[in-house]
What we know:
Blueprint: E1 2-6, H1 10-22, E2 27-32, H2 43-47, H3 63-66, E3 69-73, E4 77-81, E5 86-89, E6 92-95, E7 98-101, E8 105-107, E9 121-123, H4 127-139, E10 143-146, H5 150-161, E11 167-169, H6 182-194, E12 198-200, E13 205-210, E14 215-219, E15 224-227, E16 229-232, E17 236-238, E18 267-269, H7 280-294, E19 308-313, E20 316-322, E21 331-337, E22 340-347, E23 350-357, H8 363-372, E24 390-392, E25 398-400
Parallel strand pairs: 1-2, 1-7, 2-3, 7-18, 9-16, 10-11, 10-16, 11-12
Antiparallel strand pairs: 4-5, 5-6, 8-17, 13-14, 14-15, 19-20, 20-23, 21-22, 22-23, 24-25
Helix pairs in contact: 1-7
Amino acid sequence: MKHVIIGASAAGITAAKTIRINRKDDEIVMLSTDDAVYSRCLLHKYIGGERSLKEMAFVPDNFFEANKINWKRGVTVTGVDINSKKVLTTSGEESYDKLLIASGSVSSMPPIPGLKEAESVVTLRDLSDAIKIRQKAEKASSIVIIGTGLVGLDAAYGLVEMGKKPTIVDIGKTIMAASLDTRSAEWYQNEFEKAGCTFVMAASIKAIETSADSAVLTLGDGNTLKADLLIVAAGVKPSIGFLEGSGIKCKRGIVVDEHMATNVEGVYAAGDVTAISESWPAARTQGDTAALNMCGITTAYDMAADRKNSAHFFGIPSISVGKLNADDGETELVREDRSRYQKLVLKGEVPVGVIMLGDISRSGFWQYMIKHKVPVAAKNPWKTSFADSYSLDEKGMYKWA
């Protein structure tokens, strides 16, 4: 059996490892445009000089040799022929018995007049982007970042570590709106502002005028911002362009079932390319699930893995799981002091969301409670423990209630 994996990041690497564990003698071929394996979660640390390329790797140096994986690096996939079971690349063709598409995502450019033509614009999605940002930032006196999601703040944090003071623009009212509530977002925004960053929130961008080495942004209120370096971090989209006309069903991303299988027999997908989630843990879980099914071990994907977000800036960690804010019929319990902010969202006595910032101890416990819909202690939910869910049976033995 020959397994071909497109992509060498979280989903692809995890899948390759799982296949090798379960199929000692199967052939594994990995195709990737990247010629290095690195964690995209650490790109900001590379920009800030905290990590070298070697320190960004999340597999040992001998990973491919030890797992008998034929890694063809620096190869770009241009198409998939599902009839002949071949992957088309810039260097030829690769036949397969089972195929995993884990090609990830690419940066998305917002529809702002002049943006696509701007020579001074950089995105932050892969190592080449991080290298460009670091090189250009060294000479830049004014830096503007579009987007206050995790990628935008990663870029800002790396630049702060370089001694830079970027301006961050976003159309939303709060930063990191997809993973934090308003109050927890304020904690991080305050820290960035202390470090010299400027936030321009609830701001639209009407147009961008560019020259060879600078850009001028015109905002909706008529004000302008000049940038020697303009970084766009306004979202990503699945990397599926090479699948056009292939017969593999795509919507926003590749459509998969609970086994990470596509509409084409023997073809699977995992990670950002499915548009299910953009988180690193979810990509690894999807890669593992797909690999098990490719090996004939029927396994369903646990969607709960997609509901976790994490960040770590200025020595302050944060984790959110599930819902960020209560809807009608739900309640919120908040506790906050100088060192932490924590919020629990409850539907009756069942937790449906939690935010933990500063102190993230017991976050794994709350993720379990939310995933399994376990009721909390009524008197003081924050003091709930697993012990509350056990009782004694008629023989005096503990049982899960």
